Fold this sequence. Notes:
This protein has 2 helices and 4 strands; from the N terminus they run E-E-H-E-H-E. By secondary structure, the protein is α/β, with parallel strands linked by helices.
Amino acid sequence: MAYNFRILLNQNSESLHLNLTGDFDGSSAHALLNTIKRYSRKTNRVFIHTGGLIDVHPFGRAVFRDHLPEIGPLPGGFILAGEKLAV
Length: 87
């Protein structure tokens, strides 16, 4: 995982907000996916805020895009806030 990658989270009964900071590589993508899997069971919607990302590696974006469907649907869906991780 990129040395400076962090996931800051805020959760309530309706939504999970994940604020990403640092560089996003393949390992960072797996960390994000695991965080979503772990916390999304208790919420309806997941917001992924990408404004704090510095560098998004193409491989990291591909890993995230390819494995996101494995998490399954959420009633409120996934919302990407920002264009840095657009899938």
